[in-house]
Amino acid sequence: MTPSSTPSAAPPPRQDFWLWRLVATGMAFTMFGVGGLLLRLLVFPPQRLIPGNAADRQRRARWALNRTFRFFIRFMVRVGILTVDFKGAERLGRPGQMILANHPSLLDVVFLVGHVKNANCIVKHGLARNPFTRGPVSNAGYITNDESFDMFDRAADVLRKGETLIVFPEGTRTPQDSLPRFHRGACAIALRGARVVTPVVIRMNPRSLTKGEPWYRIPPCRMRYVIQVGEDIDPATWSNAHPLPIAGRRMNDYLHAYFDAELTRHAPAGAPAPAAGPDNEQARIAPQVESKLDESTGN
């Protein structure tokens, strides 16, 4: 048999009531969209009539989102779409805490907002224009990631005021078979405003709901999430030792190395080794090497 005629590996067999999971996944996506509209039209307007200031209105909207996402998670678990094991969730939600997580799938923000009461969140700018999500985003006072200086100032300010802030520093979902690549903006915000940074490692097997993947392309078995809350990180470790731009780079290198190690160590047996981008490779090989360019230019 010639190499060109070698048959490709057979796809894994469909398990866990595959056809039912396909139907249930469609139901879940419909529920998510309709739920966003119902919150916007039927829940948030009456909440605004209750006496209180802007902070009170945001707190009520975040409470509604927290309860809605909790219900949504329970629904997906009950109908067999996924399982989730959230370890250490009780350590999330403290004043001035930045929750910094990787972003393997579409559901990551649902898990975190559903487990952290009254949390703020940096979300994609497009969600503020989407008819299904703009109501929750605007009423909860979430920060839209338009990459402006004002966005960085707002994010640091909410941390200084004692809010909990959820951040996905990749800015988009992690590509298949890759390790996360973080933008340094999250570290810049943390160094300016966070009392503590808590890493949250999100692992899922099999991978699904990645960027550009249609909802109906479901995996052969139910998705299994393990969400692990890591040990707190003090941003002053870097801000006290280096000027701000260099501190941001060093902190970002540390976080790359941390997430790379956690995700690689717990990779499923038989899964392909995730590929590292240039930033990840540098962080893993030499996270402590001094950058003379940084020292001289502050970039």
Automatic annotation (TrEMBL):
Top-level taxonomic group: Bacteria
Chain ranges passing through the membrane: 20-43
Protein name: Phospholipid/glycerol acyltransferase domain-containing protein
Residue ranges of domain Phospholipid/glycerol acyltransferase in the record: 97-205
Organism (species): Achromobacter ruhlandii
Single GO molecular function: 1-acylglycerol-3-phosphate O-acyltransferase activity
Protein keywords: Acyltransferase, Membrane, Transferase, Transmembrane, Transmembrane helix
The keyword Translocase is assigned to this record: no
Keyword Membrane: yes
Pfam families cross-referenced by the UniProt entry: Acyltransferase
